[in-house]
């Protein structure tokens, strides 16, 4: 199993992954890319060109977690979302693609920019998976008490592993 990330120096971080771990990461990132595909834009050609959306909050709980409302007031939140969500989606896709392009079995070496993209993508993966699992602050206790025969167990372990990877990456960068 991966020992997580460590600093090599000069802003470079390294990790060693087994082939199965890379397969899991690639599968999760591919699902994430499907979730954060470009959003809907209006019929106006200028709005389409600029990526201005309709401002509607996502009804999917995972998307709502990945793209939370910036304001409590519904009108302000919709206006803000209208002008920012397309760019946020672009950023999440770029980070996910960086992870896909650089995840490999054996030694993985990342530049500072790639490592920061991994950090953001790992966070998005954890948010998405955590939302699906309805993770609470007691997740570690839940995993410890859960039988390995529980059908949810592997997914919870993956969530915990993503948390570990993100933690070691943060520590390696700082």
UniProtKB/TrEMBL annotation:
InterPro entries the UniProt entry points to: AosR
Protein name in the entry: DUF2017 domain-containing protein
């Amino acid at each position: 199993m991966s020992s997580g990330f460590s600093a090599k120096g000069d802003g470079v971080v390294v990790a060693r992954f087994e082939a199965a771990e890379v397969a899991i990461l690639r599968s999760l990132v591919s699902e994430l890319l499907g979730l954060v595909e470009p959003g809907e834009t209006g019929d106006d050609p200028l709005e389409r060109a600029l990526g201005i959306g309709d401002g509607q909050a996502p009804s999917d709980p995972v998307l709502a977690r990945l793209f939370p409302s910036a304001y409590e007031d519904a009108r302000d939140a919709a206006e803000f979302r209208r002008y920012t969500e397309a760019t946020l989606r672009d950023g999440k896709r770029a980070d996910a693609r960086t992870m896909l392009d650089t995840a490999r079995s054996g030694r993985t070496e990342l530049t500072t920019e790639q490592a920061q993209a991994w950090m953001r993508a790992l966070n998005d993966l954890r948010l998405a998976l955590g939302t699906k699992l309805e993770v609470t602050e007691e997740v570690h206790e839940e995993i410890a008490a859960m039988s390995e025969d529980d059908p949810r167990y592997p997914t919870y372990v993956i969530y915990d592993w993503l948390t570990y990877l993100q933690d070691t990456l943060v520590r390696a960068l700082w």
